[in-house]
Specification:
The chain is an alpha/beta fold. It has 14 helices and 7 strands. It is globular. The protein binds zinc ion (ZN).
Length: 345
Amino acid sequence: MTPKERADALKNGKSVDRIPIRMIYGPPSGRLMGDVSSSGTLRDDVDCIKKVYEVFGMDSIGTAYGLYGVGNAYRAVLENDLEHPLKNIADVAKLDLSVLSVEKDPGAKKCFEVAQVLSEELKDEITCEMCLPGAFTGVLSLVGLENLLRALIRNPDAVHEAMGFVTAGLIQLARSFLEMEIPVSIADPVASGSVVSKQHFDEFIAPYSTKFIDECNRIRPFGVSGHICGDTSKILESIAGCGYSNVDIDNTVDLAYAKNKIGGIVNISGNVNPAGSLLFGTPSEVERDVRECFRKAWDSPKGFTINTGCDTARDTPLENSLAFMKEARKCASFPVNPEYFMEGK
Ligand SMILES: [Zn+2]
Protein backbone atom coordinates (compact mmCIF):
# COMPACT_ATOMS: atom_id res chain seq x y z
CA MET A 1 0.00 0.00 0.00
CA THR A 2 1.10 3.58 -0.51
CA PRO A 3 1.10 5.89 2.53
CA LYS A 4 -1.99 7.57 1.11
CA GLU A 5 -3.87 4.29 0.63
CA ARG A 6 -2.82 3.24 4.13
CA ALA A 7 -3.99 6.50 5.71
CA ASP A 8 -7.31 6.39 3.83
CA ALA A 9 -7.93 2.75 4.81
CA LEU A 10 -7.21 3.48 8.48
CA LYS A 11 -9.52 6.50 8.41
CA ASN A 12 -12.31 4.35 7.00
CA GLY A 13 -11.75 1.43 9.38
CA LYS A 14 -10.47 -0.85 6.62
CA SER A 15 -7.63 -3.34 6.73
CA VAL A 16 -4.04 -2.18 6.17
CA ASP A 17 -0.71 -3.89 5.47
CA ARG A 18 0.93 -2.12 8.41
CA ILE A 19 0.42 0.86 10.67
CA PRO A 20 2.15 4.08 9.55
CA ILE A 21 5.80 4.79 10.31
CA ARG A 22 7.31 8.21 10.85
CA MET A 23 10.98 9.06 10.78
CA ILE A 24 12.24 12.64 11.10
CA TYR A 25 15.11 12.88 8.64
CA GLY A 26 16.15 16.50 8.09
CA PRO A 27 19.90 17.15 8.50
CA PRO A 28 21.30 14.05 6.72
CA SER A 29 18.90 14.26 3.75
CA GLY A 30 21.26 16.31 1.58
CA ARG A 31 23.79 13.49 1.65
CA LEU A 32 21.36 11.26 -0.22
CA MET A 33 21.66 13.75 -3.06
CA GLY A 34 25.42 14.17 -2.86
CA ASP A 35 25.10 17.02 -0.35
CA VAL A 36 22.69 19.42 -1.98
CA SER A 37 22.09 21.96 0.77
CA SER A 38 18.60 22.97 1.84
CA SER A 39 19.34 26.46 0.53
CA GLY A 40 19.45 25.09 -2.99
CA THR A 41 16.91 25.68 -5.70
CA LEU A 42 13.25 24.78 -5.46
CA ARG A 43 13.93 21.73 -7.63
CA ASP A 44 16.83 20.69 -5.35
CA ASP A 45 14.58 20.85 -2.29
CA VAL A 46 11.80 18.89 -3.99
CA ASP A 47 14.18 16.22 -5.29
CA CYS A 48 15.85 15.89 -1.91
CA ILE A 49 12.52 15.25 -0.12
CA LYS A 50 11.46 12.83 -2.87
CA LYS A 51 14.76 11.00 -2.48
CA VAL A 52 14.24 10.61 1.27
CA TYR A 53 10.82 9.09 0.58
CA GLU A 54 12.19 6.86 -2.18
CA VAL A 55 15.03 5.52 0.01
CA PHE A 56 13.04 4.96 3.21
CA GLY A 57 9.34 4.86 2.30
CA MET A 58 8.13 6.40 5.55
CA ASP A 59 4.52 7.58 5.79
CA SER A 60 5.14 11.29 6.27
CA ILE A 61 7.20 13.77 4.31
CA GLY A 62 7.14 17.49 4.22
CA THR A 63 8.79 20.83 4.15
CA ALA A 64 9.59 23.06 7.11
CA TYR A 65 9.52 26.81 7.70
CA GLY A 66 12.43 26.39 10.11
CA LEU A 67 12.55 27.06 13.82
CA TYR A 68 13.89 30.55 13.12
CA GLY A 69 11.46 31.12 10.27
CA VAL A 70 9.50 33.83 12.09
CA GLY A 71 12.67 35.69 13.10
CA ASN A 72 14.11 35.33 9.62
CA ALA A 73 10.99 36.86 8.11
CA TYR A 74 11.50 40.05 10.11
CA ARG A 75 15.26 40.28 10.13
CA ALA A 76 15.24 41.22 6.50
CA VAL A 77 12.63 43.91 6.93
CA LEU A 78 13.92 45.46 10.12
CA GLU A 79 17.55 45.52 8.99
CA ASN A 80 18.66 44.43 12.42
CA ASP A 81 21.84 42.57 12.99
CA LEU A 82 22.82 39.73 15.31
CA GLU A 83 20.59 36.75 15.79
CA HIS A 84 17.31 38.29 16.79
CA PRO A 85 15.52 41.20 15.19
CA LEU A 86 14.23 42.66 18.48
CA LYS A 87 15.62 43.37 21.93
CA ASN A 88 12.36 44.21 23.63
CA ILE A 89 9.47 41.76 23.68
CA ALA A 90 7.00 44.66 23.87
CA ASP A 91 8.01 45.54 20.29
CA VAL A 92 6.83 42.20 18.86
CA ALA A 93 3.19 43.19 18.62
CA LYS A 94 4.20 46.42 16.81
CA LEU A 95 5.60 44.45 13.87
CA ASP A 96 3.77 44.29 10.55
CA LEU A 97 1.69 41.09 10.75
CA SER A 98 1.29 40.88 6.98
CA VAL A 99 5.00 39.94 6.71
CA LEU A 100 4.15 36.46 7.99
CA SER A 101 2.56 35.35 4.75
CA VAL A 102 3.34 33.29 1.69
CA GLU A 103 3.06 36.47 -0.38
CA LYS A 104 5.55 38.58 1.59
CA ASP A 105 8.02 36.21 3.23
CA PRO A 106 10.44 34.51 0.79
CA GLY A 107 11.03 31.66 3.27
CA ALA A 108 7.32 30.88 3.47
CA LYS A 109 6.92 31.29 -0.29
CA LYS A 110 9.62 28.74 -0.97
CA CYS A 111 8.04 26.21 1.43
CA PHE A 112 4.71 26.78 -0.26
CA GLU A 113 6.13 26.18 -3.71
CA VAL A 114 8.02 23.06 -2.59
CA ALA A 115 4.86 21.69 -0.96
CA GLN A 116 2.83 22.46 -4.08
CA VAL A 117 5.25 20.66 -6.40
CA LEU A 118 5.58 17.68 -4.03
CA SER A 119 1.82 17.43 -3.67
CA GLU A 120 1.43 17.43 -7.42
CA GLU A 121 4.25 14.99 -8.20
CA LEU A 122 3.44 12.54 -5.38
CA LYS A 123 -0.30 13.06 -5.28
CA ASP A 124 -1.12 9.38 -5.73
CA GLU A 125 1.37 8.23 -3.09
CA ILE A 126 1.76 10.42 -0.04
CA THR A 127 0.50 13.65 1.50
CA CYS A 128 3.10 16.38 1.91
CA GLU A 129 3.00 18.27 5.23
CA MET A 130 4.18 21.73 6.22
CA CYS A 131 5.92 22.07 9.57
CA LEU A 132 5.61 25.44 11.29
CA PRO A 133 7.28 26.49 14.53
CA GLY A 134 5.07 26.84 17.59
CA ALA A 135 4.35 30.39 18.72
CA PHE A 136 6.69 30.20 21.73
CA THR A 137 9.58 29.15 19.49
CA GLY A 138 8.49 31.88 17.07
CA VAL A 139 8.64 34.58 19.77
CA LEU A 140 12.04 33.29 20.86
CA SER A 141 13.33 33.67 17.30
CA LEU A 142 12.34 37.34 17.48
CA VAL A 143 13.74 38.30 20.90
CA GLY A 144 16.11 35.53 22.05
CA LEU A 145 15.78 33.05 24.90
CA GLU A 146 17.10 35.28 27.67
CA ASN A 147 14.71 38.13 26.89
CA LEU A 148 11.79 35.72 26.57
CA LEU A 149 12.42 33.88 29.83
CA ARG A 150 12.98 37.14 31.71
CA ALA A 151 9.72 38.52 30.36
CA LEU A 152 7.77 35.48 31.63
CA ILE A 153 8.48 36.80 35.13
CA ARG A 154 8.80 40.55 34.64
CA ASN A 155 6.48 41.37 31.78
CA PRO A 156 3.80 38.69 31.39
CA ASP A 157 1.44 41.04 29.55
CA ALA A 158 4.01 41.61 26.82
CA VAL A 159 4.56 37.85 26.52
CA HIS A 160 0.82 37.33 26.01
CA GLU A 161 0.74 40.10 23.44
CA ALA A 162 3.74 38.65 21.59
CA MET A 163 2.27 35.13 21.69
CA GLY A 164 -1.03 36.44 20.34
CA PHE A 165 0.75 38.25 17.53
CA VAL A 166 2.88 35.31 16.46
CA THR A 167 -0.08 32.92 16.74
CA ALA A 168 -2.07 35.16 14.40
CA GLY A 169 0.86 35.17 11.98
CA LEU A 170 1.22 31.40 12.11
CA ILE A 171 -2.51 30.95 11.47
CA GLN A 172 -2.15 33.29 8.49
CA LEU A 173 0.68 31.13 7.14
CA ALA A 174 -1.10 27.86 7.92
CA ARG A 175 -4.22 29.02 6.08
CA SER A 176 -2.37 29.23 2.74
CA PHE A 177 -1.19 25.63 3.10
CA LEU A 178 -4.43 24.19 4.44
CA GLU A 179 -6.43 25.76 1.66
CA MET A 180 -4.12 23.94 -0.76
CA GLU A 181 -5.00 20.68 1.10
CA ILE A 182 -1.54 20.58 2.72
CA PRO A 183 -1.75 19.60 6.43
CA VAL A 184 0.37 21.54 8.93
CA SER A 185 2.26 20.33 11.96
CA ILE A 186 3.93 22.21 14.80
CA ALA A 187 7.47 21.94 16.15
CA ASP A 188 7.81 23.91 19.37
CA PRO A 189 11.13 22.78 20.85
CA VAL A 190 11.45 25.68 23.27
CA ALA A 191 8.04 25.00 24.85
CA SER A 192 9.71 22.04 26.53
CA GLY A 193 9.52 21.10 30.18
CA SER A 194 13.32 21.36 30.01
CA VAL A 195 12.90 25.13 29.51
CA VAL A 196 9.59 26.22 31.05
CA SER A 197 7.61 25.13 34.12
CA LYS A 198 4.16 23.53 33.89
CA GLN A 199 2.68 26.73 35.27
CA HIS A 200 4.30 28.80 32.54
CA PHE A 201 3.33 26.28 29.86
CA ASP A 202 -0.30 26.37 30.99
CA GLU A 203 -0.41 30.16 31.15
CA PHE A 204 1.71 31.28 28.22
CA ILE A 205 1.80 28.44 25.71
CA ALA A 206 -1.22 26.12 25.93
CA PRO A 207 -3.91 28.76 25.16
CA TYR A 208 -2.09 29.83 21.99
CA SER A 209 -1.39 26.28 20.80
CA THR A 210 -5.07 25.49 21.35
CA LYS A 211 -6.10 28.55 19.39
CA PHE A 212 -3.79 27.65 16.51
CA ILE A 213 -5.00 24.04 16.37
CA ASP A 214 -8.68 24.99 16.63
CA GLU A 215 -8.32 27.52 13.84
CA CYS A 216 -6.43 25.06 11.59
CA ASN A 217 -9.09 22.41 12.14
CA ARG A 218 -11.77 24.96 11.32
CA ILE A 219 -10.06 25.75 7.99
CA ARG A 220 -9.43 22.06 7.16
CA PRO A 221 -9.99 19.28 9.70
CA PHE A 222 -6.75 17.43 8.97
CA GLY A 223 -5.56 17.46 12.59
CA VAL A 224 -2.29 19.03 13.72
CA SER A 225 0.56 16.92 15.02
CA GLY A 226 2.94 18.38 17.58
CA HIS A 227 6.62 17.96 18.31
CA ILE A 228 8.08 19.39 21.51
CA CYS A 229 11.67 18.48 22.31
CA GLY A 230 13.21 17.52 25.62
CA ASP A 231 11.66 16.39 28.87
CA THR A 232 7.91 16.95 28.65
CA SER A 233 7.05 14.48 31.45
CA LYS A 234 5.46 17.15 33.65
CA ILE A 235 3.52 18.87 30.86
CA LEU A 236 2.28 15.87 28.85
CA GLU A 237 -1.33 16.32 29.93
CA SER A 238 -1.17 20.03 29.17
CA ILE A 239 0.21 19.28 25.69
CA ALA A 240 -2.45 16.67 25.00
CA GLY A 241 -5.09 19.14 26.21
CA CYS A 242 -4.18 21.54 23.39
CA GLY A 243 -5.95 19.31 20.89
CA TYR A 244 -3.10 17.88 18.83
CA SER A 245 -4.01 14.88 16.70
CA ASN A 246 -0.64 13.31 17.43
CA VAL A 247 2.07 14.11 19.98
CA ASP A 248 5.72 13.20 19.42
CA ILE A 249 7.40 11.94 22.57
CA ASP A 250 11.08 12.89 22.74
CA ASN A 251 13.44 10.11 23.74
CA THR A 252 14.13 11.82 27.10
CA VAL A 253 10.58 10.81 28.11
CA ASP A 254 9.77 7.18 28.85
CA LEU A 255 7.23 5.96 26.28
CA ALA A 256 5.47 3.72 28.82
CA TYR A 257 5.03 6.72 31.11
CA ALA A 258 3.72 8.84 28.22
CA LYS A 259 1.29 6.09 27.23
CA ASN A 260 -0.10 5.95 30.76
CA LYS A 261 -0.41 9.73 31.00
CA ILE A 262 -1.88 10.68 27.61
CA GLY A 263 -2.22 7.53 25.51
CA GLY A 264 -5.96 7.55 26.19
CA ILE A 265 -6.29 11.10 24.83
CA VAL A 266 -4.09 11.25 21.74
CA ASN A 267 -2.01 9.17 19.33
CA ILE A 268 1.59 9.19 20.56
CA SER A 269 4.72 8.70 18.49
CA GLY A 270 8.37 8.13 19.19
CA ASN A 271 10.92 7.63 20.37
CA VAL A 272 14.13 5.98 19.19
CA ASN A 273 17.00 8.14 20.45
CA PRO A 274 18.58 9.91 17.45
CA ALA A 275 21.70 10.67 19.49
CA GLY A 276 21.95 7.08 20.77
CA SER A 277 21.81 3.93 18.69
CA LEU A 278 20.91 5.76 15.48
CA LEU A 279 23.98 8.00 15.52
CA PHE A 280 26.51 5.91 17.41
CA GLY A 281 25.18 2.35 17.44
CA THR A 282 24.96 -0.56 15.06
CA PRO A 283 21.98 -1.58 12.93
CA SER A 284 21.15 -4.36 15.39
CA GLU A 285 21.15 -1.88 18.28
CA VAL A 286 18.77 0.35 16.32
CA GLU A 287 16.51 -2.65 15.70
CA ARG A 288 16.56 -3.43 19.43
CA ASP A 289 15.50 0.15 20.25
CA VAL A 290 12.67 0.04 17.70
CA ARG A 291 11.37 -3.16 19.31
CA GLU A 292 11.62 -1.58 22.74
CA CYS A 293 9.42 1.34 21.64
CA PHE A 294 6.79 -1.06 20.35
CA ARG A 295 7.03 -3.11 23.53
CA LYS A 296 6.23 -0.03 25.59
CA ALA A 297 3.58 1.65 23.47
CA TRP A 298 2.08 -0.65 20.83
CA ASP A 299 -1.17 -0.96 22.81
CA SER A 300 -1.57 2.76 23.50
CA PRO A 301 -5.35 3.31 23.47
CA LYS A 302 -5.40 6.10 20.86
CA GLY A 303 -2.69 4.48 18.77
CA PHE A 304 1.08 4.50 18.51
CA THR A 305 3.29 5.55 15.63
CA ILE A 306 6.95 4.56 15.64
CA ASN A 307 9.21 7.57 15.06
CA THR A 308 12.60 8.95 15.91
CA GLY A 309 12.55 10.81 19.25
CA CYS A 310 13.74 13.96 17.50
CA ASP A 311 15.41 14.87 14.22
CA THR A 312 18.02 12.48 12.85
CA ALA A 313 21.56 13.80 13.37
CA ARG A 314 23.53 14.79 10.27
CA ASP A 315 26.24 12.14 10.64
CA THR A 316 23.87 9.24 11.26
CA PRO A 317 25.00 6.21 9.24
CA LEU A 318 22.62 5.42 6.40
CA GLU A 319 22.57 1.73 7.37
CA ASN A 320 21.21 2.66 10.81
CA SER A 321 18.31 4.64 9.38
CA LEU A 322 17.61 1.79 6.94
CA ALA A 323 17.65 -0.62 9.91
CA PHE A 324 15.16 1.65 11.69
CA MET A 325 12.75 1.41 8.75
CA LYS A 326 13.26 -2.32 8.24
CA GLU A 327 12.56 -3.18 11.87
CA ALA A 328 9.74 -0.64 12.10
CA ARG A 329 8.05 -2.34 9.12
CA LYS A 330 8.27 -5.71 10.85
CA CYS A 331 6.92 -4.45 14.18
CA ALA A 332 4.19 -2.35 12.53
CA SER A 333 2.82 -5.13 10.33
CA PHE A 334 -0.94 -5.39 10.75
CA PRO A 335 -2.52 -6.96 12.67
CA VAL A 336 0.27 -6.22 15.12
CA ASN A 337 1.89 -9.34 16.51
CA PRO A 338 3.20 -8.38 19.98
CA GLU A 339 5.02 -11.69 20.33
CA TYR A 340 7.46 -10.42 17.71
CA PHE A 341 8.82 -7.54 19.80
CA MET A 342 8.29 -8.85 23.33
CA GLU A 343 11.29 -9.63 25.51
CA GLY A 344 13.85 -12.03 24.13
CA LYS A 345 12.59 -11.93 20.56
ZN1 LIG B 1 12.80 17.41 18.94
